[in-house]
Design brief:
Blueprint (H helix, E strand, L loop, with lengths): L1 H12 L2 H19 L10 H20 L3 H5 L2 H18 L1 E4 L5 E8 L2 E3 L1 H22 L6 H20 L3 H18 L3 H21 L3 H9 L12 H12 L13 H4 L10 H34 L3 H25 L17 H19 L12
Antiparallel strand pairs: 1-2, 2-3
Helix pairs in contact: 2-3, 2-13, 3-15, 5-6, 5-7, 6-7, 6-8, 6-14, 6-15, 7-8, 8-14, 11-13, 13-14, 13-15, 14-15
Length: 382
């Protein structure tokens, strides 16, 4: 009886609409991956995703059992562990290379597969950067230029380390998370103007001295991929053809005579999962993905508005920035509006480490909602 009462109390305190949105996203993701042929090694993307979702939900529930303010008190442990993961990956990680010039050392081997530590580091960054922002907010230092510079240095640590791994797509996501969290905390707009001005000045320099040839190729080819239909432009051309072939209602799930079943779109289970929805479920299926992600984002902002402190607000904005940026860049590259940059569609793309860690982020947002009323019960340690 006591366990039943505890369960009922948990359900009562939880954001049930947020849970419903997440369960809908999970079911849709599994449905799409069930239609994708297995990997060359015979591994089912559906099975891997299902395991990741179960692990992710379990971790999310565990996260909700401890007040997020209590979790933030151990920010230094989180920061140290994240730094260890990135450095370990840089030294002992597994590199992914291709003839196109890609050389990203961003994975580590685990029994039965690989794990991408930067996905877990995103969650750690949400915790540590939120703690940093809340400390400055509490001391009324968010208008101090030296403190703003320290915030920027904090954010540039994961950005720089992930860049050194060769995973610039993830580095961009970290940067977007930094911007979203800083904006949500109330950093003055003139600092954002300075950041964008600096980026405009730095881009030509980065183009000449930082970007690799394959990265430059992605910028130059994405608007006219038809100029190299069998080379650099093939992935986006094939993805666009699959999306268009579905028309309004799609060609039907589990149809054996589809481009999906023949694997014509490279990496369709991950970076181009949107093309799977487009071909099999048409415009309706594509819009359903966008609608579910928008509902998740709007609900996250609502939880941020209801939070009682800067810490909870920043956690929600960190999750919002991560999901919004990944969705924007992924959909942009699938629709030929942005260059291919190796960013997955959150919650929908295949990838065990990415999926499981994203659900941990959802757990943090749910944590903020569930503990929004006991503000005075937890002391914050500096």
């Amino acid at each position: 009886m006591q366990r039943l009462n505890s369960l009922l109390d948990y359900i009562k305190r939880a954001d049930k609409l947020l849970w419903l949105i997440m369960l809908s996203i999970s079911a849709y993701s599994l449905l799409l991956l069930k239609t994708v042929p297995p990997s060359p090694s015979g591994r089912s993307y559906f099975t891997v995703q299902l395991i990741a979702i179960v692990v992710g939900y379990f971790g999310a529930i565990l996260f909700t059992l401890i007040d997020y303010r209590e979790i933030s008190n151990y920010w230094y442990i989180v920061a140290g562990f994240c730094l260890f993961l990135i450095v370990y990956t840089q030294i002992f990680g597994q590199a992914v290379t291709s003839s196109g010039g890609i050389n990203a050392k961003a994975w580590i081997k685990l029994p039965g597969g690989t794990f991408q530590p930067s996905e877990l580091v995103k969650i750690g960054f949400i915790i540590t950067f939120s703690k940093h922002l809340s400390e400055l907010k509490e001391r009324d230092l968010l208008k101090s230029f030296p403190q703003i510079m320290l915030l920027a240095c904090h954010a540039m640590i994961p950005v720089g380390l992930v860049h050194l791994q060769g995973d610039d797509g993830t580095a961009v996501i970290f940067f977007c998370m930094f911007l979203a969290m800083a904006f949500g905390a109330g950093i003055q707009l003139r600092y954002f103007g300075a950041v964008f001005a600096a980026l405009a000045v730095a881009f030509p320099i980065a183009w000449k001295y930082v970007l690799k040839d394959y990265q430059k190729d992605r910028f130059t080819i994405f608007r006219h991929p038809e100029t190299e239909p069998l080379g650099r432009g093939m992935q986006q051309i094939q993805g666009r053809l699959s999306i268009g072939s579905g028309q309004i209602r799609g060609r039907g799930l589990f149809n054996s005579d589809t481009r999906v079943s023949k694997g014509l779109v490279p990496v369709q289970q991950s970076d181009f999962i949107f093309s799977v929805a487009g071909e099999l479920l048409g415009f309706v299926g594509c819009m359903l993905i966008i609608l579910l992600l928008l509902l998740l984002l709007f609900r996250t902002l609502r939880v941020a508005r209801k939070s009682q402190d800067c810490l909870g607000n920043s956690i929600c904005f960190g999750f919002f920035g991560m999901i919004a940026a990944q969705a924007l860049f992924n959909l942009g590259m699938c629709l030929n509006l942005l260059p291919v940059m190796g960013v997955t569609l959150p919650f929908f793309s295949a990838g065990g480490s990415s999926a499981a860690c994203l659900y941990l982020g959802f757990g943090l947002v749910q944590n903020v909602y569930m503990h929004r009323t006991n503000f005075d019960k937890v002391s914050l340690h500096r």
